C-alpha cells in the first residue's frame, strides 16, 4: 500500500480525474449523493444525518451548499471557538466552511481552498446567498497551499485527503500553515485491508474516494512525520453502512475522524 | 476576494508574500486583479472575484 511514490505523471492524472469528476458535481447539487459524489445513488433524505450533520445545522445553510460529498462532519470533531481562523482543504460547495463560520463568528474567518473551478464558483455564490462575510474561497491545491506559515488556528477537511496522490505532502502543508497549538480536524476514509495495485491504478475508484485511502497506521505515520502529535484516528461507529459509503465499503475502506495537534514545542523526532 | 485576507495568503510555489494589483472592484470585493509573488514573480489572476492560486502547471 503505497502512495506518494508514484511518478509525477500519475499525480497529474489523478488530479485531472478528480477535477473531471467534481466539476460537474458542483452543478448538480440540489440532491445529495449525486453520481459524482463519494456517495451511492440513494439515501438522499438521510444523507446529512448519516454523515454526522444535524438537520438544524443544514437547514441554516444556503441551499446547494451541502452536496453530500463528505464522509463525516469535521467541524463536530472538536470545538472551534469564536475568533479563530479556519482553513478548509477541498472546500467543495462550502458546507463545512459555513458551519465553521457560524462557530468562529464575526471576529473569526474561514478560508476554503479547492482545485475545482466550478466548486469554488459555487461556494462563492453560496457565501453571498447566505450572507457569510467571514468566509472566502480560493482556487488552490492542497499539496501546495497558498497560505502563509503559522497563519490559521484550525485546519479542517472532509473526504478529500484520500484523493491526494501524496498525503504526506498534504499533512506537511497543513502543519506548516497551522499556528503552534493549532488543530487538524479531518473526516476521511481509511483502508482496513490492503488495496491491490490494480485498484490503486483505477482512477474511477480513486476519484470515487476509495482506492486512494491509506490504512490507519500509514495515516498515523504520515501525520507524525509531518510533525503532528496528540493524534487520534477514530473509526466512526455506524450501525449500518449508509448507501453513501457503500462503494468505499466494498474495498474495506471506512470513515474515520482524525484529530491532531501542531505542538507548541518542537517535537523530538 | 476582500483585501483583508491578503495577510494570510502566500505564493504556493515559493511561499513569499503576494502583491495585489486591483483592476475592478464591486463594493468591498476585488473582482478582477492580479496577485504577484514578491519573490519569484509568478502572477496569479483574480477573475470573477476568485483568486486562482493553483500552481501555473495545474491551471487549465
| Radius of gyration of chain A from CA coordinates | 17 Å
Relative strand content of chain B: 35-45%
What proportion of the residues of chain B is helical, as a percent range? under 10%
User: So, the CATH homologous superfamily of chain A?
Assistant: Vaccinia Virus protein VP39
- Oligomer classification: heterodimer
- Outline the low-pLDDT stretches of chain A: 1-5, 29-45
Numbering strands along the chain, what is their spatial order in the largest sheet of chain B? 1-2-3-4
Average pLDDT rating of chain B: 93
Per CATH, the class of chain A reads Alpha Beta
Shape of chain A: globular
Structural class of chain B: mainly beta
Q: Order of strands across the biggest sheet of chain A?
A: 3-2-1-4-5-7-6
Mind summarizing the main beta sheet of chain B?
A: 4 strands, antiparallel
Order of helices and strands of chain A: HHHEHEHEEHEHHHEHE
Annotation field: number of helices of chain B: 0
Order of helices and strands of chain B: EEEE
Largest sheet of chain A: 7 strands, mixed
Which two chains touch over the largest interface?
A-B, 24 and 23 residues
Gap from first CA to last CA of chain B:
21 Å
User: What is the mean pLDDT of chain A?
Assistant: 85
Query: Which structural category do the helix and sheet elements of chain A fall into?
Result: alpha/beta
Description:
The complex is a heterodimer of chains A (269) and B (60). Chain A is α/β, with parallel strands linked by helices and 269 residues long. Chain A has one domain: Rossmann fold. Chain A is built from ten helices and seven strands. In chain A, strands 3-2-1-4-5-7-6 form a seven-stranded mixed sheet, with helices on both faces. In chain A, strand 4, helix 6 and strand 5 form a beta-alpha-beta unit. The longest helix of chain A is centred in the N-terminal third of the chain and has 20 residues. With 60 residues, chain B is mostly beta strands. Helix content of chain B is 0%, strand content 42%. Chain B has no helices and four strands. A four-stranded antiparallel sheet of chain B has the order 1-2-3-4, with no helix packed on it. Chain B starts with 17 loop residues before the first strand and ends in a 9-residue tail after the last strand. The mean pLDDT of chain B is 93. At the A-B interface, strand 2, helix 5 and strand 3 of A face strand 4 of B.
Amino acid at each position: 500500500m503505497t502512495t506518494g511514490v508514484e511518478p509525477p505523471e500519475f499525480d497529474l492524472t489523478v488530479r485531472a480525474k478528480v477535477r473531471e469528476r467534481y466539476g460537474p458535481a458542483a452543478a448538480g447539487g440540489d440532491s445529495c449523493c449525486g453520481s459524482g459524489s463519494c456517495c451511492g445513488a440513494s439515501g438522499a433524505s438521510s444523507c446529512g444525518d448519516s454523515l454526522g450533520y444535524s438537520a438544524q445545522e443544514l437547514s441554516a445553510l444556503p441551499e446547494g451548499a451541502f452536496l453530500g460529498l463528505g464522509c463525516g462532519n469535521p467541524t463536530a470533531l472538536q470545538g472551534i471557538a469564536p475568533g479563530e481562523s479556519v482553513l478548509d482543504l477541498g472546500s467543495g460547495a462550502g458546507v463545512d466552511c459555513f458551519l465553521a463560520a457560524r462557530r468562529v463568528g464575526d471576529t473569526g474567518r474561514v478560508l476554503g481552498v479547492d482545485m475545482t473551478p466550478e466548486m469554488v464558483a459555487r461556494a462563492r455564490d453560496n457565501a453571498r446567498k447566505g450572507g457569510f462575510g467571514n468566509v472566502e474561497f480560493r482556487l488552490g491545491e492542497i499539496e501546495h497551499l497558498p497560505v502563509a506559515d503559522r497563519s490559521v488556528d484550525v485546519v479542517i477537511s472532509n473526504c478529500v485527503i484520500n484523493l491526494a496522490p501524496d498525503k504526506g505532502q498534504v499533512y506537511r502543508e497543513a502543519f506548516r500553515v497551522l499556528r503552534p497549538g493549532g488543530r487538524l480536524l479531518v473526516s476521511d476514509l481509511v483502508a482496513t485491508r490492503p488495496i491491490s495495485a490494480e485498484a490503486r491504478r483505477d482512477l474511477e475508484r480513486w476519484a470515487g474516494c476509495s482506492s486512494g485511502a491509506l490504512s490507519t497506521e500509514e495515516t498515523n505515520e504520515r501525520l507524525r512525520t509531518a510533525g503532528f502529535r496528540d493524534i487520534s484516528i477514530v473509526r466512526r461507529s455506524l450501525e449500518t453502512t449508509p448507501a453513501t459509503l457503500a462503494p468505499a465499503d466494498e474495498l474495506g475502506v471506512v470513515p474515520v475522524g482524525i484529530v491532531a495537534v501542531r505542538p507548541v514545542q518542537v517535537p523530538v523526532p | 476576494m476582500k483585501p483583508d485576507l491578503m495577510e494570510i495568503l502566500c505564493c504556493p510555489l515559493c511561499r513569499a508574500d503576494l502583491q495585489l494589483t486591483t483592476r475592478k472592484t464591486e463594493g468591498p470585493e476585488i473582482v478582477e486583479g492580479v496577485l504577484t509573488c514578491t519573490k519569484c514573480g509568478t502572477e496569479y489572476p483574480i477573475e470573477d472575484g476568485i483568486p486562482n492560486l493553483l500552481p501555473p502547471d495545474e491551471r487549465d
